[in-house]
Design a protein that fits this description.
By secondary structure, the chain is α+β, with helices and mostly antiparallel strands. 33% of the residues lie in helices and 22% in strands. It has a domain at 244-325: Actin, Chain A, domain 4, CATH 3.90.640.10. The protein contains 15 helices and 22 strands. The radius of gyration is 22 Å and the shape is globular. Its main location: cytoplasm.
Length: 434
């Protein structure tokens, strides 16, 4: 086997199957658990040890938990949902709600006051589009509830009362965000049990590692979360509210300056598509601008008109590494990773630098991993080995990790039941993996 270079990006060809067993830090309370992950043969029937709970669940509650849990990755830009144990989400759609912006004048016109999922995508030209989640925080709970209801009834075709639910959220969110989500799921959707998990931790589950630092950059939030041998280090989490939606907004501004007026909420979704298909991250932006010359790429708008794209292709995602370009005083994604690693003990940093795991749709931008590697090398000590793992399915890594975790029979005892929630609503914060 040939030796690897000290610093490299590793592209994983296929998903890793993992089995998870539970471990608890002596520093944490009895209800706060973190999970060790081990790679294991998918066909081995292994009973895993788990710490017993203080009280036994009722037989009726156990019966409900035999149903497949529902896993909902509640992203700022996209909703991913499906049943635990599956290798990919059953539904994946933009997490926005559309409302007609024109009056109906004919009988038989499109019915409905709100549109979600595939219908919202299909008729977005007629709609005013609104995202109920901004930078990982729900700003419109009524619309958020509409999306969750759509997931259960239209996408999954099941009753919420019959399945436990695992819900994801960004780290360092306000406590009130989790409180309200739990209240809606228990009181409105009547779920039998619930568990809330930080997105980046689930991505680490999906990668099959017990040690690593996950850089998760989605549509609303970019965050780095270090985990060492299954133990969390909350003090070292770094989060910045610069992500894919900001790239879309900046690209929209650059296109407007170039003479392309795409200003409606529906046209903003067209800009998002341009970003996903045409944008890339430059290793050296200054050099790239000098060399790009007359290299233009053409993108056809839905109406057939072409848009010529030049430097905008790399200038838009550049804000992930240099937020000052849009007047934000946040650290770049490379600084987020290094700052997070530098907040842990000296003895642990080496292993974290060799296990940087990418997650989230924004990391799929062409050239992202190469630029990140280049920038981290500049900030790290000279002889430190750096390895970045870029799973091909990283757009779904969080959901896949949740599917693995919630699908374990031994995970039953980690669910928060309706009875537990009614006795102590604060348990939603006590029993989580962060």
């Amino acid at each position: 086997m040939s030796a690897r270079k000290p610093s490299e990006i590793i592209h994983i060809d296929r998903p890793v199957i993992v089995v998870i067993v539970e471990s608890r830090s002596a520093r944490e309370s009895d209800d706060h658990v973190i999970f060790h992950r081990y790679v294991h043969d998918a066909y081995t029937n292994l009973e895993l040890p788990i710490r017993p709970r203080r009280e036994e669940m009722s037989a009726e509650y156990d019966d409900v938990l035999t149903n497949q849990p529902v896993v909902i990755d509640n992203g700022s830009g996209t909703m991913k949902a499906g049943f635990a144990g599956q290798d990919h989400p059953k539904c994946y759609f933009p997490s926005f709600v559309g409302r007609p912006k024109h009056p109906r004048v004919m009988a038989g016109a499109l019915e409905g006051d709100t549109f979600i999922g595939r219908r919202a995508q299909e008729y977005r030209g007629l709609l005013k589009i609104k995202y109920p989640i901004e930078h990982g925080i729900v700003t419109d709970w009524d619309d958020m509830e509409r999306i969750w209801s759509w997931v259960y009834t239209e996408e999954l075709g099941t009753l919420s009362e019959e399945h436990p639910v695992l819900l994801t959220e960004a780290p360092l969110n306000p406590r009130a965000n989790r409180d309200t989500a739990a209240q809606i799921f228990f009181d409105t959707f009547n779920v039998p049990a619930m568990f809330t998990s930080v997105q980046a931790v689930l991505s680490l589950y999906a990668s099959g590692r017990t040690t690593g630092i996950v850089l998760d950059s989605g549509d609303g939030v970019t965050h780095a979360v270090p985990v060492f041998e299954g133990f969390s280090m909350p003090h070292a989490i770094r989060r910045v509210d610069i992500a894919g939606r900001d790239v879309t907004d900046h690209l929209q501004l650059l296109l407007r300056k170039a003479g392309h007026n795409l200003h409606t909420t529906a046209e903003r979704e067209v800009v998002r598509t341009i970003k996903e298909k045409c944008c890339y991250v430059a290793i050296n932006p200054v050099k790239e601008e000098k060399e790009i010359g007359g290299k233009w790429e053409e993108f056809k708008l839905p109406d057939g008109n072409p848009v010529q794209l030049g430097p905008e292709r790399f200038k838009a995602p550049e804000i992930l590494f240099n937020p000052e370009l849009i007047g934000q005083e946040y650290a770049g994604v490379h600084q987020v990773v290094v700052d997070s690693v530098n907040r842990v003990d000296l003895d642990l940093r080496k292993n974290l630098f060799t296990n940087i795991v990418l997650s989230g749709g924004s990391t799929l931008c062409k050239g992202f991993g190469d630029r990140l590697l280049n920038e981290v090398k500049k900030l790290a000590l000279k002889d430190v080995k750096i390895k970045i793992y870029a799973p091909p399915e990283r757009k779904y890594s969080t959901w896949i990790g949740g599917s693995i975790l919630a699908g374990l029979s031994t995970f039953k005892k980690m669910w928060i039941s309706t009875e537990e929630y009614q006795e102590d609503p604060d348990i939603i914060h006590k029993k989580s993996n962060f």
